[in-house]
UniProtKB/TrEMBL annotation:
<dbReference type="InterPro" id="IPR001680">
    <property type="entry name" value="WD40_rpt"/>
</dbReference>
<dbReference type="GO" id="GO:0005656">
    <property type="term" value="C:nuclear pre-replicative complex"/>
</dbReference>
<dbReference type="GO" id="GO:0006364">
    <property type="term" value="P:rRNA processing"/>
</dbReference>
<keyword id="KW-0175">Coiled coil</keyword>
<dbReference type="InterPro" id="IPR015943">
    <property type="entry name" value="WD40/YVTN_repeat-like_dom_sf"/>
</dbReference>
<keyword id="KW-0539">Nucleus</keyword>
<feature type="repeat" description="WD">
    <location>
        <begin position="199"/>
        <end position="221"/>
    </location>
</feature>
<dbReference type="GO" id="GO:0006261">
    <property type="term" value="P:DNA-templated DNA replication"/>
</dbReference>
<comment type="subunit">
    <text>Component of the RIX1 complex, composed of IPI1, RIX1/IPI2 and IPI3 in a 1:2:2 stoichiometry. The complex interacts (via RIX1) with MDN1 (via its hexameric AAA ATPase ring) and the pre-60S ribosome particles.</text>
</comment>
<keyword id="KW-0853">WD repeat</keyword>
<dbReference type="InterPro" id="IPR045227">
    <property type="entry name" value="WDR18/Ipi3/RID3"/>
</dbReference>
<feature type="repeat" description="WD">
    <location>
        <begin position="125"/>
        <end position="159"/>
    </location>
</feature>
<comment type="similarity">
    <text>Belongs to the WD repeat IPI3/WDR18 family.</text>
</comment>
<feature type="region of interest" description="Disordered">
    <location>
        <begin position="480"/>
        <end position="503"/>
    </location>
</feature>
<keyword id="KW-0698">rRNA processing</keyword>
<dbReference type="InterPro" id="IPR036322">
    <property type="entry name" value="WD40_repeat_dom_sf"/>
</dbReference>
<dbReference type="Pfam" id="PF00400">
    <property type="entry name" value="WD40"/>
</dbReference>
Length: 503
């Protein structure tokens, strides 16, 4: 089965007269709508997605902005699968990568942590003094990061939050990142196992900060002309995009730069000197370097990068999805299927194999053609509204076990061997291979010729310098030798003359 990248976005109504929003999936190449899930009105940072895997179907969680309701969808049907009543109206929502834990923040600064398979409320605590704006799990799900209106970013260890022995104790954060001065608007976690990872945070104080969780320290600060609302970080952490909703501007900031040194180009990191390392992105610099700035012309609600980081997706408050080429900043395409709504959430993902209307039965794990038997859905049950010690002690978790009678899936068939060998040969071919690109070979040959000419020139200059040095040496030596021989002769001449007179 060939993997296909798609766009998943959440469109919400800005007013009661605008109607009801939806969650839609679009083809990233054509912009066509592949599926749509109705009856939802999720706010910003209130949507969480678990992708479908080989043995389990994915789910979509959407917290409603005007209700204490959490809508649950799966990719196998376009209707609401489950409606969960929450204890408070959520202000943000997140799901870890495995879909085992769900966290929600509230306007009172409280955070709830549930186990999705059992619905048990593992912890509920006052994490911030004011509203919680954003929640993020690290890549490995070992830590939960929260940012709020109190300008603080707290890092919580999940193992401590779910520990049975500390349920009656107030959770303490692993660390608190408190260098912002105004409300935190977005958090992005980098690649790496906790705590060996880096974090980007943005704030209304016009700044974006880079943190290192291992040392619990601030690495760099980028100051912008306007407040920053959303962030999108390259998967390899080479650059990031920061949006300004007021001006409809997107700034591209490189975290590495090329520098000429010793007659060559080297790559060095930008910043990294700590709290005193502040890089200001001024308006005049932006105007002088247009390659850093993308002007959308509409208020921006959300942004995301594609898997290869070659396409930037921009969701606007007018319901448009704009696609830009990252290297050239050229506008590629506009999707207007959600016109009149606000694109509060956007991301890319692999096309679910169990997507309604696009089911691929070659992906099945059994012989049954029933979709539910083909790919079971991730189990999610209603969440508890209060802590229940008895239920926690006797809690049960639904786990899907493998059927040993079935043959294991041969994942090698998902990638054609001929195509794999062709791409492998392209990436590992030597520079002198006849199949190498002509432009790269020509540039290398030209570089070799330039270096050889420079070597010849340096040898010629070295020969001239050696000749001058030899001439100077010979002149000095002959002069000193001549002076040394002339002194005794001058001393002997008077004695010889006196000797002749005496005789």
């Amino acid at each position: 089965m060939q993997a296909q990248e798609v766009i998943l976005c959440s469109a919400s109504a800005q007013s009661s007269n605008a109607g009801i929003g939806s969650i839609t999936i679009h083809d990233i190449q054509t912009g066509a709508t592949l599926a749509s899930f109705k009856q939802t009105n999720a706010g910003s940072r209130s949507v969480a997605v678990l992708e479908s895997k080989s043995l389990q179907g994915g789910v979509v969680l959407a917290a409603q902005t005007d209700k204490t309701v959490l809508n649950v969808y799966n990719f196998q049907k376009d209707q609401l699968a489950l409606k969960i009543i929450l204890p408070e109206k959520p202000s943000c929502l997140t799901l870890d990568k495995t879909g085992n834990f769900c966290a929600a923040g509230t306007a009172q600064g409280r955070i709830y942590l549930w186990e999705t398979a059992s619905g048990i409320l593992f912890n509920c605590w006052d994490a911030h003094y004011r509203q919680v704006n954003v929640l993020r799990f690290t890549v490995d799900g070992a830590a939960l990061l929260s940012g709020g209106d109190d300008s603080a970013v707290s890092v919580w260890s999940v193992s401590r939050l779910v520990n049975n022995e500390s349920q009656n104790e107030l959770p303490t954060p692993f660390c608190t990142l408190s260098d912002h001065t105004l409300p935190v608007t977005d958090i992005v976690c980098g690649i790496g196992l906790f705590p060996n990872c880096r974090v980007l945070t943005s704030s209304v104080d016009h700044s974006v900060k880079v943190w290192d969780l291992a040392s619990k320290s601030l690495l760099s600060t980028f100051e912008f002309p306007s407040p920053i609302d959303s962030l999108a970080w390259d998967l390899t952490e080479r650059f990031f995009f920061a949006t300004c909703n007021e001006k409809g501007s997107i700034y591209k900031i490189h975290l590495f730069r090329q520098k000429t040194r010793f007659s060559g180009q080297i790559v060095e990191a930008v910043g990294g000197s700590g709290a005193n390392d502040v890089m200001r992105i001024e308006n005049d610099i932006i105007e002088a370097q247009k390659k850093r700035l993308i002007q959308v012309g509409q208020p921006i609600a959300s942004i995301a990068l594609s898997f290869a980081s070659n396409i930037l997706l921009v969701g606007t408050t007018e319901g448009s999805i704009l696609m830009y080429d990252v290297p050239s900043h050229q506008h590629l395409r506009t999707i207007t299927a959600n016109k009149g709504l606000s694109i509060t959430y956007i991301r890319t993902m692999l096309k679910p194999p169990d997507l309604i209307g696009h089911v691929n039965l070659d992906f099945r794990v059994g012989s049954s053609v029933d979709l539910k038997d083909t790919i079971p859905i991730k189990p999610i049950v209603p969440f508890q509204r209060m802590k229940d010690a008895k239920a926690r002690e006797a809690h049960e978790v639904l786990i899907m076990t493998k059927n040993r009678a079935l043959k294991p899936i041969d994942y090698s068939t998902f990638y054609e061997s001929d195509e794999f060998l062709k791409e492998h040969a392209f990436f590992v071919q030597p520079i002198t291979s006849p199949n190498a690109p002509e432009s790269s070979v020509a540039s290398l040959q030209s570089r070799v010729q330039d270096l050889e000419a420079e070597v010849v020139r340096l040898k010629s200059q070295l020969g001239q310098a050696k000749g001058v040095n030899d001439a100077m040496w010979d002149t000095v030596v002959h002069r000193l030798v001549g002076q040394g021989k002339g002194d005794p002769q001058e001393k002997d001449q008077p004695s010889r003359k006196r000797g002749r007179i005496g005789t």
